[in-house]
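Our preliminary data section would be incomplete without showing what the modeling component actually yields. Below, a chain of 79 amino acids is followed by its predicted structure, encoded as tokens that our downstream tools consume directly.
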Amino acid sequence: MLRSCALEWTGNWDDYICLVEFAYNNSWHASIKCAPFEMLYGRKCRAPICWDQVGERVIEGPEMIEVTNAKVAVAKEKL
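Predicted structure:
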């Protein structure tokens, strides 16, 4: 993905690296059977166009850290 984008945006591809990262992290991966973002956070990522939607804010505690660490371990095993 990065190679094709770098070839497309010759000369200033680094200006677009954040877009490539967003696309990669939200693309389905066969090894983990979901997108990396979804594996880590347990939900699908909202596109930047949805970021202005108001929702309930929740402060995550130690349980969230444990769940996240477990998901990272599963992802590492499947690599």
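The chain has a mean pLDDT of 75. The chain has one domain: 2-78. Preliminary results of this kind motivate Aim 1 of the renewal.
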